[in-house]
Amino acid sequence: MVNAPFQPRFLLVCGLSAALVSCGVEEQGGSSGPTRFVSIQPIQVCDDFGLVCADLATFEEATRKIWAQANLDISFLAPNRLNASRFLTIDNQDEFAELSFAGGAGAFGRNPLSTRTSGPISMWFVDNIFPSDEFETLGLGWIDQNGVLINDSILGFNNDAGRLDTVAHEIGHNLGLTHTGFGAGGANNLMTDGGIRNTPSTVGDITPDGARLDRLTSSQIDVARGSGLTRSNPQLSADSIPVAPPAAPPAVGAAPSPDLTPTGDPLAVLPPVTYLALQPEAAFVDPAPPRSIPNGPAMSLVTALLLAGYLGWQPRRQ
């Protein structure tokens, strides 16, 4: 495991969800229109020699159930592997932007069909995100752009059972959802910030069952289904046409989205927490070994200038 200091500047974080009871009435959405499809490209980050790797924690069963309420079919492709020690710990948003946008098709383990605004969604699993921050960052996702980071420490919650909804939450950011917009903010809403969101203890507590947690409003469902990262064709192909025109780059004030928990004992300074359960590893890890992907290519001068311009935008931390 690699550790390095960093100072985050502009990402949305998915954090620990406190077990609070919402006193308000929350709008309940439901599936709208025919099934649309979203593919996820898991990317397991390892050291340069491929010997020390972050754990894959896709929580596929829970993720698929959460997004079924929007009639979105989430599928996970066979994982790629990125052998690059410097990315085992993500120290700042510049490194995340490099993984997400630098290089050509397929760079840094991305699927060759992925673009900034079309799928498959690139999802990197790392050992640590923003290790010197006041809070532990469990996940990061660009808003309305392609790219997710998942901290494999989510496996350590609930007596090493794990957190169920972090992956689904981060996918929501890529699909255009934020912590407070489109009806988010209630304790039982999937996109509410982790500090106040109720989290399911089992898959049986995910809406529409049990405690009916991780709900989406009708407005959230409409936005997510309209994302260019979704498609009408169940088959992943180069000619898949987005349902909406590609989104413009993030405007001033836009950002990716982190989930935070305090450092040290993650539960010590928060209200009582509903712990998460982890489905058996065999349920979400592809039996085929990940394909090895070499370190990302060195950036050309043109790529470096484009990336520098991109990072010049002022994002919004939520």
Structural topology:
Elements: E1 36-46, H1 60-68, E2 72-76, E3 80-83, E4 89-90, H2 93-101, E5 121-126, E6 128-129, E7 135-142, E8 148-151, H3 157-160, H4 166-174, H5 218-225, E9 256-262, E10 291-293, H6 301-311
Parallel strand pairs: 1-2, 1-3, 1-5, 3-10, 4-6, 5-8
Antiparallel strand pairs: 7-8, 7-9
Proportion of beta-strand residues: 15-25%
Helical content class: 10-25%
Name the overall outline: globular
pLDDT average, as an integer? 75
Q: How can the largest sheet be summarized?
A: 8 strands, mixed
Write the element-wise H/E pattern from the N-terminal end onward.
Answer: EHEEEHEEEEHHHEEH
Unreliable runs, pLDDT <50, ≥5 residues? 1-26, 239-254, 261-289, 293-299, 314-318
CA-to-CA gap between the ends?
Answer: 27 Å
Q: What structural class should be given to the helix and strand makeup?
A: alpha/beta
Number of helices: 6
Give a count of the beta strands, DSSP E runs of length 2 or more: 10
Radius of gyration: 18 Å
Considering the chains and any ligands shown, give keywords for the structure.
disordered N terminus, alpha/beta, globular, eight-stranded mixed β-sheet, disordered C terminus, 10 strands, two-stranded parallel ribbon
